[in-house]
């Protein structure tokens, strides 16, 4: 322990002597070291460093216990083992790194050797079958032979692709070293030096492979020696760092001199892990416990200590005490690999920019980090004012800071300092006025508000200035300008300056001052005249309020640092300003300080950086915190150039000192390196991509070729080596894609998206030299469809398309002409067919009216005449009338099919009955023609069909069979179920159909050639086909001329195929029960004047007088019949007479039956009247339209009188049921109404009656006015709906309301009777008993439970009555 302490003291003594010598020859500024720490924040995920090397591109490689890392400007790129990728490290534990002449980086790992090649940009394992296990070291002979040291023992020699183990036997000492681990190797003068375990050192002559063993005893005098580093210098001397100190051999003719210890008196006992001789022959030694030592060789060959760097919290010391590797790069920077502290990088010459600040662990640092007022005094020291911790005194030659200087000011905020010509230092504070320190007498004086020798009104002092004549001026914050009177020793305010906020003062000649103010711009003060003059640089209110933080006088030019307009130049002779609007970096920044160096450059401080500005060339040189400048903004006016030429800058985080010339002398020594190309976010290299030229990666190539799909890519680039402390920012752009340069980085990865095909150049330039440093040509190939081959193909295809189009258009014109002709022909045929149909339809419609007038009277006569002969004639008339009607109905049905207006009324029917009926009917006809008629049918055969349409189909098919089958022949008619199909077959042995005519047999109006004379219209089979297809079925025909014809109809049995079809309507097939017989009300009429209108009235409407006469004759015994000849006349008579029933024709002039029915149903007075329409149209759509507006029934012309009488009787019976409904003893509930017009009317009348009862007055005429009807019309409507007179209906409503109020318990019987306008209680009881068959008291007793919640209606009645 005593030995170690004495050794440390001797080292420190020698270090101080060395520093003293250096101090005598040192420049004016002290040397400051800064250790830049690289660790996890920079991507170095493992901080135990085993080796550091540099390749020929300048890239630094770091080996660690967990991976290999390449430093790329500001961050590390990792190379780690990946089990799924063979092009990665063999093992993550790296023993040693080696760079060969081809710039390949060899990595010795714990499981083999990996070799990184810039040609492939990946690591490949070297001889993985032979070099296995831990490989600790590597050496390369001049002839290219490789040597690898094995941790398990032995040395591999690799020559011409063959590997073998060297024999390690020393014939002199008879020692065999083949089984001992080799830890370090190096080659010097054709000799391979190798450290073997802890046993010593091997020297192998590469020419003869002669082995010489130097034991640990021979080297250090001990049995064991742990050698941590083997270093061979340029003079072939071998250095060993070990646990026993540092040893060095002197070269001998045999290449193996004796080893001797060195630095024994200068180094404490420790493990010395790394040795390095720098480019100035200074020796650097890294230790395990004591950091790093530096020794400078003396002329006599000895080494004197020069530096010792120990661990420190800040960057002024190393990050860890254990230095495992010392490496100096080709720019002279040292890279220190530590054991758990990452990598430290520093400049052995010291930082160009010195940085001082407060360090809590360093008592020799500044007392506070915020530096404001500063000045250089006569003894060469720099006085440093802080914002709250007084003044520090800095010796710029040694860097020593005196914190405890002037203890009276140690808690003061110092804003400005100045030494005058009398060696007095003027000190301006923020809140304590002015201090004046006389360096000669060591006397401190004070001037503050209230002091005896001052007129100060504020203690905030911002500026000092001494004129050439020795007069001192003081600028204050908002208290103007003061001057110091030497005779009286007083501070006196300059007249006219009160209120000014002065931040800077200078003069161009004696008695002419220039003041920079806060808020009033630049002021000129003429001391002789005692006047102040404003000099605004533009006539605008904005510029009149300019803030000037600093002024630097350069001859007759004043350089002004302003807040809002950057740097301004003011010519005091011409009184004009120069504004550097084109220099954005100083035009858009707030300038806090200005000074000038010996080269003519202005040094400017802003909120973010320090800038050098060449005013002649208008060039800007920015210096950021990368160059050791402090972060944050500089304080106002805190910059000056010392007499020795260095510049001092104060800011919120400390102060900087530097020689401007040194910053401009720094040259960029390396070009930019492209280090990564990502395509679609995947890294591309020579192994996994073919975008590079053969044998080149992104590092070596000057061009890449991308596919059109690769239009999203990024390019990574950096400046090799360590660049944090260098001002070598770059800009980049993709020429051809963008025109503007992108700024702000010395390494970056820029991404471009959706770049179109074309040729581009990615360029990087250095901002300091404004020259291009690297370019990369990028070609993006167009897709195949945009190549010249594709364009040629397009032209060929286009020509073919034009030829084909011309040919197509020519054939199209011919085809269009043919189609036009065919269309015209078909239109003519269609027109002819439509005319035929229209003629037949209109003619059939016209026939229906006379047939009606024939059929009706004939039927009546047939019932009354008993003469057999006359009855025979009448039956003949009836038969032929029915035949005519049959043809007419068929024609009208076919017309509806043609116009797509046929509606199927589908129900589930038993077709067995229909088939039997048709078979019986046509069997009689077949018997008359002596034709055999066969019929077969399954029992109970049900299907979903329209029964009427099925009858038409069967009738047509059987009729045709009878018609075209001769005497003695046979007809077979059958209907059956086959699977899920209904099958109908009609087969005859008749004349048959020609084969050429079969295809037209279902065409409208088509008749076969052999049917001439057989009669018919040619629409029967067409009608059948249409009806079958409407049912979703098919009809087929097989025929042979002379042998007969077979028709087959197939229909689906179910109804699923008919669902959601627009032409299908499903109907109920069960017969409706007849209504109850007419119910008559025996209620006597209450008013005598109403008896005349109580008879039943019928209105008959038709434009045919015969129809009117005929219907009148049918009903004249039961009704008072009124007639009208058109709808307009009928509407007027219906409104006037209010008939009980209306029978109207459908087709009439002026207003047809549908329009008449709609008008009647929309009128409240006539909406209740039943309407029967007579029509010759058998149209379902017309019927649907009528039913939708409220028509009660349809009767098709011609009609039977019995049918009309029965329909009228049925409607009147239903009307009586309606009377029963509204005669019940309860008021109607709107919530349960079914939406009929009669219900709406009754509800409206009930509401009107109850509403008038609430008002306390009620009369029938008022009710008529409320309903908008005459008294007669109201009477007939109420009579028709309810079966009682108006007065009786009103009385029933009142009694019903009384019963409702009783159930709700809203008053006594007397109160309720009085509220409902019953003047006599006995009369009320009589009426109540007639309606409910019990007295009110009995009614209340029969309903003991309460009804719905009570309302306030009873109270409202009583209130009205009162």
TrEMBL record:
The modification 4-aspartylphosphate is found at residue 1145. The keyword Ligase does not apply. Residues 842-1055 form the Histidine kinase domain. GO terms for molecular function: ATP binding; DNA-binding transcription factor activity; phosphorelay sensor kinase activity; sequence-specific DNA binding. Its EC number is 2.7.13.3. Keywords: ATP-binding, Kinase, Nucleotide-binding, Phosphoprotein, Signal, Transcription, Transcription regulation, Transferase, Two-component regulatory system. Residues 1243-1342 form the HTH araC/xylS-type domain. CDD domains: HATPase, HisKA, REC_OmpR. It catalyses: ATP + protein L-histidine = ADP + protein N-phospho-L-histidine. Residues 1097-1212 form the Response regulatory domain. Residues 1-19 form the signal peptide. It holds the Pfam family HisKA. This is histidine kinase. It comes from Catalinimonas alkaloidigena.
